[in-house]
């Protein structure tokens, strides 16, 4: 039998949950965001553990994802801890590639959430992040839209 397959007596030891509850130091802001956005929402609805407590394997998963975001921070000097947390919330926590591309173009998570059409906020328009992710615009187009939006901010404030 291969590792992780179901045996006659249920799952093999590799697929069993580490049932212990994690009791370490409070997680960093990035690890906490990964727990909140990626890990805990995938927890079984039958779990009786409160959302602010974590199983050992959940903490391992969050730490594994954290290492990917740490590598992204090395690739992109614009990614500080607050920006990473913002990207985690926007991307669902698993897509470092798009976050790096946008951050290198000077786009923040808040910018990527903008719904712009003709340099105006439009609640019916897709977000910049969605349009980029689905190939409706390039990173260069996104950066240009955000730049124009920010340049016209004083004009909008004066109105």
Find the count of extended strands (DSSP E, 2+ residues): 4
Give Rg in angstroms.
20 Å
Mean pLDDT: 86
| Strand line-up in the sheet with most strands | 1-2
Overall structural class, as computed from helix and strand content, comes to mainly alpha
Element-level helix/strand string:
EEHHHHHEEHHH
Beta-strand portion reads: 5-15%
Number of domains: 2
| Major sheet size, sense and barrel closure | 2 strands, antiparallel
- Flag low-confidence runs: 3-15
Shape category: elongated
C-alpha termini separation = 71 Å
**What is the count of helical runs?**
8
* Helix content class: 40-55%
Architecture overview:
It is a single chain. By secondary structure, the chain is mostly helical. Helix 1 packs across helix 2 (56-75) and helix 2 packs parallel to helix 4. The chain folds into 2 domains: 20-94, no CATH class; 105-159, no CATH class. The chain has helices spanning 29-39, 56-75, 81-91, 96-104, 109-112, 128-133, 139-151, 153-158; strands at residues 6-7, 10-11, 116-117, 120-121. It has a two-stranded antiparallel ribbon. A two-stranded antiparallel sheet has the order 3-4.
Brief account:
The protein has 159 residues and is mainly alpha-helical.
Secondary-structure blueprint:
Layout: E1 6-7, E2 10-11, H1 29-39, H2 56-75, H3 81-91, H4 96-104, H5 109-112, E3 116-117, E4 120-121, H6 128-133, H7 139-151, H8 153-158
Antiparallel strand pairs: 1-2, 3-4
What characteristics describe this protein?
159 residues; mainly alpha; two-stranded antiparallel ribbon; 8 helices; 50% helix; elongated; disordered N terminus
């Amino acid at each position: 039998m291969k590792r992780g397959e179901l045996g006659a007596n249920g799952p093999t030891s590799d697929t069993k949950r580490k049932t212990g509850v994690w009791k370490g130091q409070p997680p960093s802001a990035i690890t906490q965001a990964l727990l909140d956005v990626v890990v805990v929402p995938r927890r079984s609805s039958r779990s009786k553990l409160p959302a602010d407590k974590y199983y050992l394997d959940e903490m391992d998963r969050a730490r594994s994802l954290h290492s990917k975001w740490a590598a992204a921070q090395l690739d992109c000097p614009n990614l500080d801890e607050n920006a990473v947390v913002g990207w985690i919330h926007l991307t669902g926590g698993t897509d470092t590639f798009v976050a790096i591309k946008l951050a290198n173009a000077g786009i923040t998570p808040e910018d990527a959430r903008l719904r712009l059409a003709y340099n105006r906020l439009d609640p019916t328009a897709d977000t910049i992040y969605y349009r980029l992710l689905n190939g409706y615009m390039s990173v260069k187009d996104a950066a240009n839209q955000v730049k124009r939006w920010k340049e016209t901010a004083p004009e909008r404030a004066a109105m």
